[in-house]
Specification:
122 residues; mainly beta; 6-stranded antiparallel beta sheet; 3-stranded antiparallel beta sheet; 9 strands; 46% strand
Amino acid sequence: METFTRETMAVAMESDGLEIRLEPAGEMTVGRFRLPAGTDLRPLVQGLEGDLCQCPHWGYMLKGTLRMHTATGPKEYRAGEAFYWAPGHAPEALDDVEYVDFSPSRELATVLEHVQRQAGGS
């Protein structure tokens, strides 16, 4: 049995108010995300299949409104909502956003490595 807090989770990426903290949990990874208003991650997932994140995520919106871009169009997620994001998405923060998600570790690592390269190794 484990618990995960922002303070105990490792920083995977941090820049200009964006913060991604991750901690492995079996074959899954727990993620804590902060995206400042206006953050659009579409440029960072370009080059992945369909230019979209191909990792599934299950989670809960803690704060703000997030627009998830998909091949079939955008959908908005708001604080207080649980979510499932299937492969094929790219987030854009309409407000300051915070959420917690749970993702398969292998798929998440592939996406995160790509995003970090696109961001210049941040």
